[in-house]
Amino acid sequence: MPAPAPRPPARPDEPAPAELAPAQPVSSQAGPASGGPAQPETAEEITLEAAAKASAENFPVAMRILPARYRRHLMALYGFARLTDDIGDETAPAARARLLDDLEADVARIYDGGTPPRLAALRELAVTVAECGIPAQPLLDLIQANRQDQVVTRYETYADLAGYCRLSANPVGLVVLHIFGAASAERERLSDNICTALQLVEHWQDVAEDLANGRIYLPQQDMEQFGVTEEDLAAPVTGPRVRALIGYEAARASALLDEGAPLVGMLRGWGRLAVAGYLAGGRAALSAIAASGNDVLSTTPRPDKRETAGQAIRAYLRGR
């Protein structure tokens, strides 16, 4: 059933609602007194930062070739996902649960047909929800993934990690399919494989960064199998056991990408191009990891733009 049309945006002079009011300062966070940057404590601050990132990161650049109507909807999705992640990662820790609750309440406003969303990013998303029939659940799942990040910092098994990806990554693919009018049960299944793989690849690129934030996404069972300790991950150089583990995990992500790749051949037009691009980004990132010799600690392997473009063309033409 199509989602209800979004309500008109709030007036510029409308007072900020209580649930999005600034949090009380958190003394443990860096700020002017400590010489470090203050962490944002309101959703409005994070919205502005997410918009700035949206203008600089690879996702919107890659989508500029698409017609304006698709770009707008994909940017609305990207802006929401970026905002959700930034609330979970970059706000004062004591404020995160409240801000995620506030964000969920603003998502509900899109669907209840009453009070309009308070945040600009959500008002833009409301247009996409109305025009593309986006269900609420994938948006709520993205918020839940960030709640999970606040309390879960290690994953015992690969199955546990895949469960996290069902919240943090797969919902994005579902929304993309709706944006292109291509959602179906089989396409969603293939999309889930691609999205989980893309999330895994990002984690394997960012092992050092994640550890600095107190998180390890490498499954504990796999670390034990390869004899890798947390001290190994904290080392300035990537040892042979870590390289072997990353190679193993990268191969698993590559297999998932290949399982989901037939989705490209099931799509036509701009949707086919967009999904070919996502698939290519994952494959190019895996190539970058392999080219580095699975060195993910002393560097962050990033794909070459020409490699990504070549992968996208091949995926588009082959349909996988």
List keywords for this structure.
320 residues, mainly alpha, Farnesyl Diphosphate Synthase, 16 helices, 0% strand
Indicate the mean pLDDT: 86
The best one-word shape is globular
CATH architecture of the largest domain: Orthogonal Bundle
According to DSSP, the number of beta strands is 0
Termini gap: 30 Å
- Total helix count? 16
- Work out the helicity level: 55-70%
Written description of the protein model:
It is a single chain. The protein is mostly helical. It folds into two domains: about 45-150, Orthogonal Bundle (Farnesyl Diphosphate Synthase); about 155-320, Farnesyl Diphosphate Synthase. Helix content is about 65%, strand content about 0%. The chain has helices at about 45-55, 60, 70-90, 95-110, 120-130, 135-150, 160-170, 170-180, 185-205, 205-210, 220-225, 230-235, 240-260, 260-265, 270-290, 305-320. α3 (about 70-90) runs parallel beside α6 (about 135-150). The radius of gyration is 20 Å and the shape is globular.
Set down the secondary structure blueprint.
Elements: H1 43-54, H2 58-62, H3 68-90, H4 93-112, H5 120-132, H6 137-151, H7 158-168, H8 170-179, H9 185-205, H10 207-212, H11 220-225, H12 230-233, H13 240-260, H14 262-265, H15 269-291, H16 305-318
Helix pairs in contact: 1-3, 3-4, 3-5, 3-6, 3-8, 4-5, 4-6, 6-7, 6-8, 7-9, 8-9, 9-13, 9-15, 13-15, 15-16
